[in-house]
Amino acid sequence: MSTPRLSQIEAAPTAVVERLVSLACLAPSVHNTQPWRWRYDGGRLSLSADLRRRLPAEDPRGRNLTISCGAALHHLQFAARALGWDTTVVRLPPDPDETLLADVVVTRRGHHAIERGDIDLLRTRCTDRRRFTAWPVPQDRLEDLCRLAAPWGVRAQALVDDGDRFRLELLANRALTFLEIDRDRQDEQDRWIDRATPEGIPLDLLPDDPEPLQARSRFRPGVLEDTRLVLHGGDRVIVLGGHGDDVGSWLRTGEAMSAIWLEATRAGMSVVPMSQPIEVESIRREIGRSVLGRAFEPHLLLRVGWQAIGRRGLPRTPRRPLADVLQV
């Protein structure tokens, strides 16, 4: 698909683009690295990967970085629709800059009431790592969420079979063990916790010390009161992926992840990404073989469940100033 000729359309005002990018940057990202750069020039908004924020030990190929950028790209499209604007997206446009992921043209689609509920949804979505309740998400709800991936050309499969869940739990624990003995990965992860800058994961959003021999987490203990398992009894897992394992596929997986996460949030569900089993290549391949039956290449796992009623809301993770991520 080619972008429209700008001479034939009315480009969005800079103020509108600034608002859209601000909302797009509320998207989830690996360790809240916010690895994106935006540029608005001549009516075209460009999204690029910020390779300075790549995690070379945990994410050497940039899969998690690209998925994060895909989530921001979907957030932008979602915000534009809510505010009455159309978006035309070209993914991986031909360009000498290999970090360029997408070009977006934003155009007005006539009079349209602002969908304030959707804007609020972008602002309230968060990553709540506390233990889910034991009440499982019904299978039909999971299937509805999985169907949201199809428009992005992404495969989504909910793991409801007990055997698949058990196999995944074993593999997830093996991945955590791999992380624990890899000092480079552990040090890199720790550098993104409790930073003084508006990025990374605040300590008060990480669960505190788990009960001995009961629970494991990839992150070091925080100060948020909770205990939890890698996969708790009420957790359900959705595997996202595609036929390829490349930048274009990862970008679309990020868009699908954002679509699923926002609709899960709307329905009162909680979503937590599980990337660590995918980060260990041997375990990623084993998930594709023994859990998915080689149906597609896994890119990301999403834990889906219900948070306990009455739990206090969590503060938002910090976000970088707009001037740091958008060039106009």
Automatic annotation (TrEMBL):
<dbReference type="InterPro" id="IPR050627">
    <property type="entry name" value="Nitroreductase/BluB"/>
</dbReference>
<dbReference type="InterPro" id="IPR000415">
    <property type="entry name" value="Nitroreductase-like"/>
</dbReference>
<protein>
    <submittedName>
        <fullName>Acg family FMN-binding oxidoreductase</fullName>
    </submittedName>
</protein>
